[in-house]
Amino acid sequence: MEQGLVAEMWWSLVVIGVCSVLIRVCHEVWLKPRRIKSMLWRQGIRGPQPSFPYGNISEMQKIQFSMINNTSDGQPVSENWTHSLFPYLQQWRQEYGPVYMYSTGSKQHLYVSDPELLRELRLKSLNNSFDLGRSSYRGRPFQPLVGDGIIGANGSNWAYQRKLIAPKFFLSKVKNMVGVIELSTIAMMKTWENRIIESEGGVTDMIIDEDLKSLSADIISRACFGSSYSQGNQIFSKITSLQYALSKQSVLLGLFNFRFLPTKCNREIWRLKKEVDTQILKVVKDCQQKIHKGTIPEKNLLQLTLESAVASDDKVPREFNFKTDRFIVDLCKNIYFAGHETTAVAASWILMLLALHPEWQERVRTEILEVCGDQLSNLFQDMEAFHKLKMLTMVIQEGIRLYGPSVVTSREAFADIKLGEFVVPKGVHLWFFAPALHCDPENWGLDALEFKPERFAHGISKACKYPQAYIPFGFGSRLCIGQTFALLELKVVLSLILSNFSFSLSPEYRHSPVYKLVLTPQHGERLLVTKLQGSHLGSGL
Predict the structure, then answer these.
(1) Predicted pLDDT of residue 165
(2) What is the annotated signal peptide range for this record (predicted)?
(3) How many domains does the chain have?
């Protein structure tokens, strides 16, 4: 009798558990998406018709496949290439307007390209940043690369990390890194000079983007690890491999990608993550020992952050599982991912554009000569001189408008948000496609696809109708904290390179921008490089 009662109770619990799971699954995959779509539909927001259970994924894949088949490998630089990255976003923009909805599985997305809404969203992000954050589903696949660092963090976790890290990238701090940038750049340029000497005719055909990636990694390693930068370069190599492995996965669709299964790709990701974490932790331990012994002559970024993290340990948010070692490991990975390749890729695209426009090369060189004379060291010792490099600043701004490394920006609504005349329901993922915003003729004019740095002659606010639609470093409270350092690095690197070399496009160059977590040249930036007469590397340094 008692055994029958126990069995009956047990089966009742099983039935209740199964029903609870089914109700939850039904809510997440059917009721919640249906409610969100209904709310958006009632507000006049339209989009492609989804099908259960995959939403619009099959249509996205069909459009992408059609674009691949109809696009040749390599195209004129002057053509609009933006449609080749995510063609379904562009096609739906033409069909449904600047704001439309679509879905991937149970996830509901809102594409936004209306400049007025961007302005409102930016202000709302600044005023109440916790209601908008990084899309949670996009963060999970990148966990091996960025951990719980600031790139993927939200809420008080993100606010704490930003408060801790952001001051390290203020101009008063990053200007002390100019010497590091200069030293690394000169070393790279000497290898270029040797290649030119060995070549016939004083001109060499080079793929420059790999050298610039190594340069940027060396700069980050020296700035972050100081005297341990050689170990930092080894870590960079592993992180690059990890980034490449992760780029094979489709994280934009929002599909469950079986990250826990021991597939060949996943095993490679797990191995690389373990090696990266182990190497970074070793550098951290070495740094801690040197701090304890007082043997570090000059504080690097790693040491400064270590000291700040330890000092603020008692102020950590309760929900933030803070461990200093784990935090520093994730910080280093975030700095590498966000800082090394983005700056290098930006420099590569800018040099490609200057190779196509030799008149702007000459303008920038003339300006550098006028500002600093024969010795560039004068420029680097005087931060005020950087403000006088207006031509170079305009070139950089126009370069990252046309070929900004950051392609897509996404936000998740963690609460219902009023946006203009719309109410964006909690759980919606908002998407912003930077290349389309940066090449919109309604905002930039009919010459939007042309390289015209003079459009920035009076600053960003006067360059277009809606400056809020210029988002190379993101927008709102989540604006890239490394922006100041990235622009400083670009100015130093380009000033040195353009003062010593001239560039033209190689006959072998094939223009094919592709998305691999950042906008990269599929076949490399292949340029003809010539050493300028009378220039001397390291002169006066």
Answers:
(1) 83
(2) none
(3) 1
